[in-house]
Amino acid sequence: MTHPRILLLATTTGYQTRSFGDAAEHLGIEVALATDRCTRLEDPWRDRAVPIRFDDERGSLAAILNEAARLPFAGLLAVGDRPVAIAAHAAAALRLPYHSIDGARAAHNKRLSRERLRAAGVAVPWFAVYAIDDPRPLDAGEVPFPCVIKPLVLSGSRGVIRADSRAELYAAHARVAALLHSREVQALRDPDAGAVLIEGYISGEEYAIEGLLEHGHLRVLAMFDKPDPLQGPFFEETIYITPSRGDAGRQRRIEYAVAAASGALGLHHGPIHAECRVDGDRVFVLEVAARPIGGLCARALRFENGRLQIPLEELLLRHAAGESAASWTREAEASGVMMIPIPHRGVFRRVEGLDAARAVPHVTEVRITAKADQMLVPLPEGASYLGFIFARAPVPAAVEDALRTAHSRLDFVIDRALTVVRQTPLPTRR
């Protein structure tokens, strides 16, 4: 490779951002960051990043174009959902191959995504969008059961709750409303932060697809099984394992549905991460995100070309620089990751059994990301995990067994959070 300069749009901090930096150093290329931060402070993180704001597309685009005028970019990537639209604007202005602006917006918006998939004939559940303060969805005559309620603006199963009755829908609606009215979500300044999608619940197995679009053609990098049943009431993802153990016909149907969904949304060039449910022979595309798999989960993927083996981040940088992914294939071994769920709300103190978990055959890494004294919040309100377990083995079944065995050897000490009861003070006698 020559020495191109790649623009990476991301949050200010994150495991994957550092992984891209390591991959760029190995390749001998420059990665310029554009991160969500105060635009008035001069390089507070000492990373020479272009300061942008995810809620200010026009100002962010101007900042990126100013930097490109100083020193051009050969390609770009976005990590996470929020900067994808800005990346699409920048790619269009700089005439770099990437997802279309329209496609990036549709992929990030659950309502637009559902509408476009339905119009293209891609299987989707019934759905309706309501303002969170609209009482209509609580009318049992308007919403059939079972159904799923989810915010338009959040990802990673946050706020996603199944309801099998009117009473459950009332309770789920109240929890989602409290989440959307929270200071954290309001700080996103997203115009869709006050809306929810209610849709039909789909039974069946769930799969995740990691792929690259190359000028409209989908190249599947990996298909993950999710062996834990995701039936609700919450939908916390735990285990991803690849290659898939689904039969060849099912895998072809999934690939075809994801390719059709990507085209329907208007995605064109760059990484995608899709989620599907398969009920019998029907494939329901739940999401096609215009970005790669998030966080540390990318460590479950390695790719080979002859004797050379590289991580996902390096493959994505090569692709952004103009190299085709055609000569790269996922490693021969099966691999997987467990995202360690938070069992209950409370203050994290410590974890015991790490050495025993790491000693399990086929386990390659156990990474605890929770910090001592951190307040832990489980789904559907929470947005994090306790950590990650990784494994590699000759077959997927051995990977799954290793992940479950390692997890069983960990003991997390979490002090339950105290419930604060507010009492009305007694009137003062005079």
Structural features, described:
It contains eleven helices and 22 strands. The chain has helices spanning 15-27, 57-70, 84-94, 101-108, 110-119, 166-180, 183-186, 248-265, 312-320, 354-358, 396-408, and strands spanning 5-10, 30-36, 50-52, 75-78, 127-131, 147-151, 161-163, 195-200, 205-214, 217-225, 239-242, 270-279, 282-289, 302-305, 308-311, 329-330, 334-340, 346-352, 363-368, 375-376, 387-393, 411-416. Helix 2 (57-70) packs across helix 3, helix 3 runs antiparallel to helix 4 and helix 5 (110-119) packs across helix 8 (248-265). The protein is globular. Residues 426-430 have low confidence and may be disordered.
How many helical elements?
A: 11
- Report the portion of residues in β strands: 25-35%
In quaternary terms, these chains amount to single chain
CATH class annotation of the domain at 5-106: Alpha Beta
The CATH level-2 architecture of the domain at 5-106 is identified as 3-Layer(aba) Sandwich
Tell me the Rg in angstroms: 22 Å
Mean pLDDT: 91
CATH names the topology of the domain at 5-106 as Rossmann fold
Shape: globular
Largest sheet: 4 strands, parallel
The share of residues in helices is 25-40%
How are the strands of the largest sheet arranged?
3-2-1-4
Structural class: alpha+beta
Number of strands: 22
What is the CA–CA distance across the termini?
85 Å
The poorly predicted ranges are 426-430
